[in-house]
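Minutes, project huddle
Topic: does the predicted pose make sense with N-carbamoyl-L-aspartate bound?
PN asked that the exact inputs be recorded in the minutes so nobody has to dig through chat later. Recorded below.
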Amino acid sequence: MIEVRHSARVPRTLPDALPASTPFFASSVHPGSLLGISDLELDEVAQILTRASFLEHEDPLTRARRLAKRKIALLFYESSTRTRTSFELAAKALGADTTLVSSLSSSIEKGESLKDTGLTLRALGAEAILLRHPNSGAPWLLEQVTGLPVLNAGDGMHEHPSQALLDLRTILACLRSGVTTVAADTLSGITVTIAGDILHSRVARSNMLLLPRLGAQVQLCGPPALLPAMVAEVGPGIRIERDFDRALASSQIVMMLRIQAERLAGLQLDLDEYRRDYQLTAARLAAHAPAAHILHPGPIIRGLELTAEVADGPQSRILDQVRNGVAIRMALVERALDLHSSTVSGAAQ
Ligand code: NCD
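Predicted holo structure (tokens), as shared on screen:
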């Protein structure tokens, strides 16, 4: 059994009042921002994919002049390995200066609000902010108060749009020879199973909002405590299949998720039962999905949602996802600052 309570360190409510007249999950106001995956039209998704491939293969010295000396702040209120490092490496590969502010080593620990932290970063010259925060909607608030492009690096249980884009890049490399032109039928005939803790996963949500727009069928699999029936109502192209073996048998892509222990808030789970019903083992994979590609956003918990044999096995695409993260995030950081410049110069004309 595990029982996990929220950490007392980070406030669970948004620290600053929202303007009363504005809908909470409005789209971004800054053209360079990426707050939620639905902010992007499919042609913008295609542009980002194409740009990611271009930048990935560009001569590093030429690439490093693209954003030379531009300033980007990484503001992290939750721990992160892949997302933070890949955003940082992406920004640096384009020549930008980055600075990391993390909640455990800054004035945030002394009680400074998100708003004041954002205004401080802007006063220090930040031209874009990458934000990870435990509260859904925090990136939207930060964008409102700073006017800067904000890239959502994961907000609570809400969204993780850059992860959905790097997952899409990985899926296209597996199934469509890496094409970057995407349309409403690019993934038609493809079933993607997302398995595990769907309820608390921002990765699941962003993927559920993106993949059906390209024609994929998204199949959700997990126990009722981590996958209430209403989750499938997010949109069309999404269904629930509680039997993991059956879900595997119809999938070309299987995206495994970690149990979000930090968000369970007292919910109790029998982990032996969970392993029995939902753990991805080599035997299960061989029996039901011998050709499927296995994705996982990380961090993986070996021996819980999947075994080490699967994580390290020939069907695993987990490290490809990590590599794709850098390429996608180069395109996103460049987009944030390009559109930032055009907004500023457009305003000056
Ligand atoms: C995910 C996240 O933070 O939402 N990790 C990531 O960004 N690669 C998934 C997780 O924490 O389980």
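Observations noted during the meeting:
- Strands lie at 71-76, 97-102, 128-133, 150-155, 191-195, 217-221, 238-240, 253-256, 293-295.
- The first strand starts at residue 71 and ends at 76.
No decisions taken; revisit at the next huddle.
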